[in-house]
Every structure is written in C-alpha cells, then in structure tokens.
Amino acid sequence: MELQQAKRKFEEYLSDYDRENDKVRLKIVHTYGVTEYSRQIAGRLGLSREDQELAQMIGLLHDIGRFEQLKRYDSFEPDTMDHAAFGVWTLFEEGLIRSFIEDGRWDPVIRTAIARHSDFRLEGIEEERELLHARIIRDADKLDNCRVKLEDDIETILGVSEKEVGKTKISREVLEQFRRKESILSSMRKTKMDYWLSYLAYFFDINYKVSVELICEHDYVNRLIGRIPYSDPETRSQMEEVRDMLLQYCADRMQDPLEF
After folding, report:
1. Helices (H), strands (E): how many in the chain?
2. Segment 182-189 long-range contacts (CB within 8 Å, at least 24 positions apart)
3. 219: phi > 0 → left, psi -120 to 50 → alpha, else beta; which?
4. Domain with CATH 1.10.3210 in the chain
C-alpha cells in the first residue's frame, strides 16, 4: 500500500476539476484533513501498521465522488447526488481504484467504508474489519468537518454570512431531535440554524473514545458554538443549552471505563 503514490494519483485526478472554486478547494483540504484524522484515530486505537495505512487510504478516497457533484451541481446537498455511491461506482465499477492501489485484497473494506461513510446511521455491517474501518472514516470525517466549520468561509458552506445564520431560529423539531441526542435528518433542516445545529449533532454519532478525546483536545464544542454570533435571543439561549449538553456528553464518554 503506497500512500504517497496514491496521493500523487489523487492530485492527478483533481486536474479535471476547478481548484480555484472555493467549494472544490474546501473539499481538497478536507480530504487531506480526514486522511490525517484517520491516521490519528487508527494510531490511538493501537491498530497494526497495515490497518493504519488502510485507514489513511480510505480517508484519501472517501469523498472522491464530491468533486463530480460540485462540477455538475455546485452543491453539497444530498438531493443533487449521492456522493458516496457515486464514489464507489467510479472506483470499483469504472476501475479507478487500481490507479490508487494495485492490490485488490483490501477492496471489500475500502468499498464498504466509502459507501457507508455518510449514512445517517451505521447499521448492518457484520464483517469485523469492514465495520472497524467504516467507524474510523465516519469519526475522521466528522472531526475534520469541525475544522472546516471553524476555518472556512461560512458563506461557502451555508450560502449566507455567519451574521445571517445567527439571525435565524432553530426549528422545534430539529431542537427536539438534538435533545434526544440524535443526528439530525437532512430533510428536517429548514433554517440556517437548523443546518448549524445538525453539524453539532454529529458528536452524538462518534464511535470511538479516542475520537471524543480529540474533540476535547481541540475544544471543538466551545469553538464551534462560538463561531456564530447569535443575535436572536431565543437562539442564543438554546445554544447555551446545546453547549451544556455536548460538554456533558463528551465528559461522560471520556469517563466511561468500558469505552475504547
């Protein structure tokens, strides 16, 4: 498994896409960020060198379908394209995977992890190694999405300025789903604050204690909540409730002796 060669091939693949487009640029940086978080999670889990490299390979390839989605629709919205399914089709039906990794022995693990990385819930994977890597990529994706939401232009992500986001309200159904400590269904999101809260709800779907550890080390809860100026008083109050819930949730996960 030659990671450096795979990264060179990834750079070649990007030649078909507009790297000056803010959304494309965001996804390129995100890809490398997820690759790095995959390395950190696999390392902290004490996995073999092969599995650490495999986790990074999956991180490199997990969003390969996003670039065609952006080229065709200039959108991240799931109703324009299932980017995970398209990525799997491009890699395994068109054969692009062999450009990145010559040996096919890891194909089932890579295929499953990429296909399932953006599922609302991870269910139905029985093979142990496939489940391991599906969990790692989902955690790594969420961790780097925290960085994206902190570093990139909110207008690129949500289509309006952060001030405009903070003027809107959280829909009652979305807030109730958050209070149940559940991820937010994309179809439920109506306001820009619904979108912002859905990003914070990602934390309820973190698989590994080492991933929660990274969230705490980077202070992602406080920093994400502090990114938006909440000018609506009700929204401001609700976001303090959100802060308290998430900080307690992370603290409980870190203190659980059965977690790994």
Report:
1. 15, 0
2. 183/120, 183/121, 185/120, 186/78
3. left
4. 1-152
Q: Are 131 and 116 in contact (CB under 8 A)?
A: no
CA torsion angle 215 221 222 227 (round to 10):
110
In words, the CATH class of domain 1-152 is: mainly alpha
Q: Distance (Å, rounded) from C-alpha 221 to C-alpha 60? A: 26
67: closest CA among 108, 113, 119, 12?
12
Return the DSSP state at 96.
T
Tokens of residue 37, six digits: 């978080």
Q: Give the model's pLDDT for residue 229.
A: 97
pLDDT exceeds 80 at position 259:
no
* pTM for this predicted structure: 0.93
